[in-house]
Amino acid sequence: MSITISERAAKRIHEIRQEKNISENIPIRVSVVSGGCSGLTYDLDFDSQKEITKADKEFEDHGVKVVVDMRSFLYLAGTNLDFTDGLTGQGFHFQNPNAVRSCTCGESFSL
């Protein structure tokens, strides 16, 4: 299992890189942290400060490198990162098959 990225999300990530002058060599780090109304929340950022370790899982989809620590990967295996910009809101959304419950805003989940 891996973490995948939709074409829309990859396109938006590339746009953000250009807007903020962030190198294509810097991966996206996805992690799960405690918080939110359902107990766990997603964290998504460019990984310019951390070093990739042997405990990290690395993926690439649509030209975007993704790094996930092993603890977070246990929660995220099989997840697809998507981007929407419709009337209900703009932003990245995690389609996580492991989430049993999520809050209405989609920012947090539980297993």
Question: In words, what does this structure look like?
Answer:
19% of the residues lie in helices and 42% in strands. The protein has helices spanning 7-20, 70-76; strands at 4-5, 28-34, 40-46, 56-61, 64-69, 80-86, 89-95, 101-102, 108-110. It has two helices and nine strands; from the N terminus they run βαββββαββββ. The protein has a six-stranded mixed beta sheet. The chain has a three-stranded mixed beta sheet with strand order 1-6-7. With 111 residues, it is an alpha+beta fold.
What's the helix and strand layout?
Blueprint: E1 4-5, H1 7-20, E2 28-34, E3 40-46, E4 56-61, E5 64-69, H2 70-76, E6 80-86, E7 89-95, E8 101-102, E9 108-110
Parallel strand pairs: 1-6, 2-5
Antiparallel strand pairs: 2-3, 3-9, 4-5, 6-7, 8-9
Quick synopsis:
This protein has helices spanning 7-20, 70-76, and strands at 4-5, 28-34, 40-46, 56-61, 64-69, 80-86, 89-95, 101-102, 108-110. The chain has 111 residues and is α+β, with helices and mostly antiparallel strands.
Globally, the shape reads: globular
Number of H- or I-type helical stretches: 2
Radius of gyration: 14 Å
- What does the average pLDDT come to? 85
Features:
111 residues; 3-stranded mixed β-sheet; alpha+beta; 9 strands; 6-stranded mixed β-sheet; 42% strand; Hypothetical Protein Aq_1857, Chain: A
